[in-house]
Q: What sequence folds into this?
């Protein structure tokens, strides 16, 4: 069965590039192309996975499982704790895998502009991709955690070495917040492991659903575990007030890393909440739905308000991400199929939109040398193509009908209004604010006074044009034909 | 006792100890009669051969059952074998570290090597002894050798200060241990651990339950000195800084392993059936809980304090050796967790973590040793640009640091995972211990990753680092083994399962 090794192949495919790069001279001119080509391989493999994935079937597919190691005690040698190497994908993770591979591939082009340490950069960059691919294809919590930590270390290195002026502060801020998150996650994993003696995700979901399992874990214990999970993944998402690290990362990290960070890494938070929070502890999640909804509301409004007063484009988009992630939380908290589907749509749609926006910000940094709103302006006449794409990305972000943002927010709010009308009504303010701050930012960049210093700046290059187009097409495609997502997702209800 | 009884003993079971003893004696004689001006590198090789031979004989003993000789004062069981294995490997690596680079042949001193071997011998006796007397002799042999080793650089005032502090605080700790042991003897009238174990169920003990707890705590407090846990951790930074780096590595690894061996042996075996202070209701009516249950909170507090003190103070250290001193204090705290939790996995977990700790810590000290060659003062900043200066050392150090921080795919992670399991897998779950470990781990990220920042991000104009073959060998072995144990932990885990039956420690 070649098929069953497909996921292993996919997850470890970036290793090929890493090994190749290790043996190259740091000065070699083709390093950047080797780097990009190495991200193409996982993309092709995800497309194969995507096409082999059978839609409309419940459960985990393309599974594979090998016993990895056993922990035994001399008191009870016949009951070992077994940890297996298990990979598998569900509809949800297939979408994220594709998103990861696509955004990494496109992001690798923006890294070509970087001047120093390209070899090291691409090695760690590929390690980051390996980590994320692993996170989304793990069928085992232990494995999930291992890959999760790879993303932690590699992001730290990418941020601390190639970041902006305050890079080391940003890197340590990232490390501490995410370190706490990951250790809390580890506590949850180990508690489940010692109680239920497995770390297989599907098995755990089934066992915890079983009412007899209450004897292992009481209702209160589950509630605590869920709270730990929410904090762990909430740091990643991020949920206000755990967000300060994420703004720093957005502002300081190199563009290629921010694309991945905003596009995929933050989504690990949402993925974890849906898959583990909703999968393992549906009852408890439902009981804390109101708390989640209020947190989501705070995220949505706080992010929007702060974004409104930002004078720096990257920070503005960081707060915009926080605001958009609020909608994910709201959708989840609504606890009905429309809301949950909206939340998932929103994670994917925001991944694409954020990647597109940061790709374009990369262009801004490269051409105009600043991301301050008051120093930008009037570029529509000098670089019309760029301005057009930037406007389109902005519109997608504020949820223009016909684009992916609209359908996701629509579904999420549909769910919220059904479950919690008051919170939904307040949340709508956030949508209006989003329109205001996005338009303010887009208009400040593209229109306004023409600045002579920006004359003769190059418009989008061919690669940039193609990359942006690909992302924009995806955004519009999902907006017009959302069935492309729903058919893959299958019936995702919380608990499934 | 006549000759024939003496010959009846199964002396073969002491073979590793004999080899170390003979090597140490031979080394001292060779050193004495050798021309003063002659190159003494040969001594290192002899010492290494001795350790290697001892390892081979230890492996040959693996299939034997429990052997108990010399009137049951010496005992070779799985526990002893497991810890001797760690100590021998650790000493072997430390000796390799001492292999001189071509430009410093004159510095090799003979006493350095045979003192390490006598210290090792003390440690091995501690792991194997089943009697308070032999145990104490082993402890003192290890301690006295280490005191001299720390102060071996007679003209260096840091070394003098370190040796003095080590001697004084070590003396106090030993006195406290002995004081505790005297109560044990007073209550049972025995010095044999297994005789005490059976005496513990008697009436005298039942009437003096608080004295037993007192004895336990005294012995424990005194012994934590060896593993550098709070409240006896203060010596570690000064001694680690003042001693030569290979000696520091020896103290932080082999001496600590011996410390854990003696703590587990002397505190588990005699006290396992002793009654504690609290009452519990059993089907037969009221009875007293086990002593190990009663003292759990105290061990827990010491573990938590050690973790927090080690990690918090490490945050502010600028000297690399002091930083690793505090880091090793923190690791002692982690290692106390399975014991404090009274987990059923305690031996497996402690052994595996000590193995991981041995590899990553000796590796880290090997790197420090390599850097020390140029400057006596090893600051954090002397790691700057290490990756540029020597990619090999940079990558090896990265592996050690990630392992120390408990990042996956390294031995340190598996060890930490097991410790967490031991705290959470025991009923009732030990939330405070888990919380302390959690906090400690996150705090430790700051200083371990701070070193990574130096290694990779900071520029330097220094020349490439040249290292001796010994250091290269240690780095290669330690880094490879750290990764292998992290990626294929089953290699060590099945080894434990196949050869070590720790529970046989409790049976006479």
A:
């Amino acid at each position: 069965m070649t098929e069953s090794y497909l996921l292993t192949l996919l997850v470890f495919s970036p290793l090929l590039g890493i090994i190749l790069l290790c043996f190259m001279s740091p000065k070699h001119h083709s390093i950047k192309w080797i780097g990009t080509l190495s991200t193409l391989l996982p993309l092709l493999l995800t497309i194969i996975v995507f096409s082999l994935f059978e839609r409309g079937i419940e459960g985990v597919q393309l599974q594979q499982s090998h016993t990895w190691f056993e922990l035994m005690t001399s008191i009870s040698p016949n009951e070992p704790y077994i940890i297996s190497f298990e990979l598998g994908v569900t509809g949800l993770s297939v979408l994220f895998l594709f998103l990861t591979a696509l955004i990494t591939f496109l992001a690798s082009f923006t890294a070509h502009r970087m001047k120093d340490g390209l070899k090291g950069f691409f090695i760690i960059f590929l390690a980051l991709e390996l980590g994320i691919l692993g996170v989304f294809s793990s069928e085992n919590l232990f494995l999930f955690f291992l890959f999760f930590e790879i993303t932690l270390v590699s992001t730290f290195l990418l941020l601390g070495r190639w970041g902006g002026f305050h890079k080391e502060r940003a890197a340590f801020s990232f490390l501490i917040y995410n370190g706490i998150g990951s250790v809390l996650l580890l506590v949850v994993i180990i508690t489940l492991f010692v109680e239920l003696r497995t770390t297989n995700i599907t098995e755990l979901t089934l066992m915890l659903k079983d009412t007899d399992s209450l004897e292992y874990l009481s209702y209160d214990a589950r509630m605590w575990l869920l709270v730990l999970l929410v904090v762990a993944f909430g740091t990643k998402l991020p949920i206000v007030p755990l967000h300060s690290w994420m703004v720093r990362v957005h502002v300081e990290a190199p563009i290629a890393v921010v694309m991945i960070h905003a596009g995929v890494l933050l989504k690990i938070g949402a993925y974890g909440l849906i898959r583990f929070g909703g999968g393992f502890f549906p009852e408890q999640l439902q009981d804390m739905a109101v708390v989640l909804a209020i947190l989501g509301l705070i995220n949505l409004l706080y992010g929007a308000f702060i974004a409104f007063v930002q004078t720096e484009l990257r920070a503005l988009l960081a707060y915009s991400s926080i605001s958009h992630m609020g909608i994910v939380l709201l959708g989840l908290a609504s606890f009905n199929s429309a809301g949950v589907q909206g939340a998932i749509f929103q994670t994917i749609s925001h991944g694409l939109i954020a990647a597109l926006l940061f790709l374009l910000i990369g262009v801004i940094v490269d051409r105009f040398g600043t991301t301050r709103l008051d120093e930008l302006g009037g570029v529509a006449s000098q670089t019309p193509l760029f301005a057009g794409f930037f406007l389109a990305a902005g519109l997608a972000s504020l949820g223009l009908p016909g684009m992916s943002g609209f359908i996701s927010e629509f579904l999420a709010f549909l769910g919220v209004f059904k479950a919690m009308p008051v919170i939904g009504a307040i949340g709508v303010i956030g949508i209006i604010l989003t329109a205001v701050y996005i338009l303010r930012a887009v208009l400040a960049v593209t229109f306004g006074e023409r600045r002579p210093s920006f004359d003769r700046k190059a418009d989008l290059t061919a690669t940039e044009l193609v990359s942006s187009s690909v992302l924009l097409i995806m955004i519009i495609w999902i907006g017009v034909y959302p069935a492309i997502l729903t058919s893959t997702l299958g019936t995702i209800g919380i608990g499934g | 006792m006549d000759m024939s009884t003496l010959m009846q003993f199964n002396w073969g079971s002491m073979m590793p100890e004999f080899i170390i003893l003979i090597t140490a004696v031979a080394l001292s004689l060779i050193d004495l009669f050798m021309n003063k001006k002659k190159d003494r590198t040969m001594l290192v090789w002899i010492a290494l051969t001795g350790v290697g031979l001892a390892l081979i004989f230890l492996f040959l003993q693996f299939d034997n059952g429990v052997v108990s000789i010399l009137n049951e004062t010496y005992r070779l069981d799985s526990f002893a074998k497991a810890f001797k294995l760690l100590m021998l490997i650790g000493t072997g690596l430390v000796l390799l570290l001492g292999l001189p680079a071509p430009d410093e042949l004159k510095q090799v001193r003979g006493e350095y090597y045979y003192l390490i071997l006598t210290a090792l011998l003390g440690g091995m006796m501690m792991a194997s002894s089943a009697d308070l007397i032999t145990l104490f002799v082993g402890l003192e042999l290890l301690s006295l050798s280490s005191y001299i080793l720390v102060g071996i650089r007679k003209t260096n005032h840091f070394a003098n200060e370190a040796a003095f502090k080590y001697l004084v605080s070590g003396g106090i700790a030993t006195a406290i241990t002995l004081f505790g042991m005297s109560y044990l003897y007073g209550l049972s009238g025995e010095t044999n651990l297994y005789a005490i174990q059976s005496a513990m169920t008697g009436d005298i003990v039942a009437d003096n339950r608080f004295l037993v707890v007192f004895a336990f705590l005294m012995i424990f407090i005194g012994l934590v000195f060896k593993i550098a846990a709070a409240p006896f951790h203060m010596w570690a930074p000064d001694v680690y800084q003042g001693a030569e780096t290979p000696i520091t590595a020896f103290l932080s690894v082999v001496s600590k392993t011996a410390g854990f061996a003696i703590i587990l042996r002397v505190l588990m075996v005699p006290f396992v059936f002793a009654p504690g202070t609290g009452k519990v209701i059993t089907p037969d009516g009221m009875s007293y809980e086990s002593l190990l249950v009663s003292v759990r909170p105290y061990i827990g507090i010491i573990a938590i304090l050690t973790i927090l003190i080690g990690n918090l103070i490490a945050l502010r250290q600028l000297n690399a050796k002091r930083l690793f001193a505090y880091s090793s204090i923190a690791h002692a705290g982690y290692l106390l967790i399975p014991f404090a939790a009274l987990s059923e996995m305690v031996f497996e977990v402690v052994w595996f973590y000590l193995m991981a700790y041995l590899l990553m810590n000796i590796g880290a000290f090997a790197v420090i040793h390599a850097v020390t060659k140029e400057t006596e003062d090893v600051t954090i900043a002397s790691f700057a640009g290490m990756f540029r200066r020597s990619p090999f050392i940079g990558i090896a150090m990265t592996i050690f640091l990630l392992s120390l921080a408990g990042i996956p795919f390294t031995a340190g992670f598996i060890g930490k995972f097991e410790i967490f399991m031991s705290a959470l897998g025991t009923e009732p779950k030990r939330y405070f211990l888990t919380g302390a470990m959690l906090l400690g781990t996150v705090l430790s990220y700051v200083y371990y990753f701070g070193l990574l920042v130096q290694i990779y991000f900071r520029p330097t104009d220094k020349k490439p680092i040249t290292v001796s073959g010994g250091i290269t060998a240690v780095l290669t072995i330690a880094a490879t083994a750290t990764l292998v144990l992290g990626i294929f932990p089953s290699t060590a885990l099945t080894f434990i399962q196949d050869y070590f039956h720790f529970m046989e420690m409790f049976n006479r």
Observations:
- The first strand of chain B starts at residue 67 and ends at 69.
- Residues 157-188 of chain B form the longest helix (32 residues).
- The mean pLDDT of chain B is 87.
- The CA atoms of residues 391 and 464 of chain B lie 9 Å apart.
